[in-house]
Give the backbone structure.
Amino acid sequence: MTDLRFRAATEADIEAIVALVTSAYRGDSSRAGWTTEADLLDGARIDPEVLRADIARTGSRVVLAERDDALLACAHVAVDGDAGYFGMFSVVPGLQGGGIGKQVLAECERIVRDDWRLPAMRMTVIDVRDELIAFYQRRGYRRTGITKPFPYGDARFGEPKRGDLRFEVLEKTL
């Protein structure tokens, strides 16, 4: 499946990106894929204003993967000190497991390594998401043991359904 076209998002893409990210993580539509957080969180997964700032910021790129002008996947990469940061990774739920995500992750790693000349990629993953962490581990990411608190009370990141959520930092040398 090499017919994906990658491009950087613009402000004109915000509505479509919000819809894609929401469909991949929240509500019943997300249950068609394996990345759902519907049992952990309700509410928003991405704030349009945060997304707008990510698109505009230097050292930040929202990467879109398209085929035949249809948005199939997206991710956000940014310079984060001495490494790249990877987040907002979303694939259309019904297409998950078909290799699109692997291609998007590889493109984001290429950007960080080749365009920004950074030696590593980091991300944060909700630490109870064992299947998702295993996906990243198969692609060379390691658990660092570093955790960060979940932003309880900030509706821009969702409404938690449980009180034990936190993020774990994963890292890969590029």
